[in-house]
Amino acid sequence: MNRRQLLIGSTATAAFAGSMASPQASTRPLRLIPMTDLTGGINERINLSLNTASHDFGTSVASQTFGINHSYLGPVLRVKQGQTLPFNVTNNIGDVSTIHWHGLHIPGDVDGGPHQEIEDGAVWSPDVPVVQRASMNWFHSHMHGKTAQQTYNGLAGVLLVEDDSSLDADLPKTYGVDDFTLILQDKTFDATGRMTYALSAEVFEDGFQGDTIVVNGVIAPVAQSVPTGLVRLRILNACNARFLELSMQTGPVTVIASDGGFLSSPVEAESILMSPGERYEVLIDMGIVGTNALNVNWGEDAEGFFANLFGGNPTTTALVLNRSADQGFTGAIPTQLANLSPPNRSDATVTRSFELQMDVGADLAALAMAWDNFCGNANAMAINGQPMKMDRIDETVRKGDTEIWRISVDDMLHPFHIHGCSFRILSQSGATPPSYAQGWKDMVHVEEGWSEVLVRFDYDAPDAAPYMYHCHILEHEDCGMMGQFTVG
Ligand code: C2O
Ligand code: CU
Ligand code: CU
């Protein structure tokens, strides 16, 4: 064991001791996140109200949370390509915040990054144009230094973009019947059943790793009754830091879409490894089996510890699907989904390199002591030797240029994200990405060697409203593993 694995082992032991005492988790009903369907037209401003709340995750005790129009997390917004979304985002959390539209191809001045602060009590009213293809996107706090704490407490939601072909597609699309949105997160609860979040040197290093999987704000496993036929799951990993390896109880996972839209055709995979910030859509054939389950492997970090505890099985069930007698969606898994040609690296005229750096010599234990539960825009991590600075532009990109961005790391696996675009992965940690990650993406895993993406930026991001690129382990981002770029 190296130093890092030792740290993880001791954190996991301490964190898990609490939940070991509780009896075998019972299965709760899946919470359907209320959906606001705007695909038929928008007649008024869309209100998103960031508020403090209390929410019961299933421990029978209310936790202090943040929510967006709800007690925890926000609504699922369903919109259509070509619309402009007139938001009124009202901040009532008692602290300054921002809301970033993760995955949207939009100009920097409505991107909702750290420069578009919303003071407590204020309203931010961006008009957000939706120009891109059908895709699953999300929104979350991007308040520099407080992104981890605010997102963990509940400032996140899902934004589904549809287009003419996705609305016409022969796919399940009845929300809450055969089409479900799942937000997966890991949380820690104290002995009284209240959600907790606290920083430590280990949390800065690994990011916050909770000991309990939560689906749509309810402790897993959750169960849902579904009609016979195809069922579609649109899945977001909204953990602060934890990679989740998803698999089905019976047979392979059929993946139809990634972060930025449909794959060219469905891909069958034994499992899919999802980093924080990633989205995948999968289809499950409930005509074949009466019960199926979506399982989550807690990922490589917890594996050693959980492997010992459960005899080599670090996997937990997130969602159980039980087939009812009803006839549901009768179509078959499509053979063709989108027109997507392979990325061509010779299209690129510019290459940029980024090294994500954890080991810059900061005293993480002292920082954690000073900050307790938010990170406070630190200099403890960096990219290319520079911790994030709000008043420094790191890269200047020419609009319309195709570029290769190459990313490497000095330690461990990190998820890298770029604002304002979707890209294609050329290589991931020095290898060909898995087939399910070969479509449109805005997240790439980086562990060893280079991860390379082919990207083009088509919208303006001026000095006053630059785009961000960063590690999506939120504690790393808050600690300075982020940079800024303009497009013009
Ligand atoms: Cu999901 Cu810059 O973030
Ligand atoms: Cu983003
Ligand atoms: Cu990181």
Describe what this molecule looks like in 3D.
With 488 residues, the protein is mainly beta. It folds into 3 domains: 3-29 and 170-327, Cupredoxins -  blue copper proteins (Immunoglobulin-like, Sandwich), CATH 2.60.40.420; 35-167, Cupredoxins -  blue copper proteins (Immunoglobulin-like, Sandwich); 345-487, Cupredoxins -  blue copper proteins (Immunoglobulin-like, Sandwich), CATH 2.60.40.420. Helices cover 12% and strands 39% of the residues. The strands form 6 sheets. Strands 12, 13, 14, 15, 17, 19, 20 and 22 form an 8-stranded mixed β-sheet that branches. It has a 6-stranded mixed β-sheet with strand order 1-16-24-23-18-21. Strand 14 (212-215) and strand 15 (218-219) form a beta hairpin. Helix 1 crosses helix 5 (300-309). The longest helix is centred in the N-terminal third of the chain and has 19 residues, at 3-21. The relative contact order is 0.15. One copper (II) ion (CU) is lined by residues 100, 102, 417, 419.
Write a short abstract of this structure.
α1 (3-21) crosses α5. This protein is 12% helix and 39% strand.
Keywords:
disordered N terminus; 488 residues; six-stranded mixed beta sheet; Immunoglobulin-like; mainly beta; binds copper (II) ion; eight-stranded mixed beta sheet; 3 domains; globular; binds CU-O-CU linkage
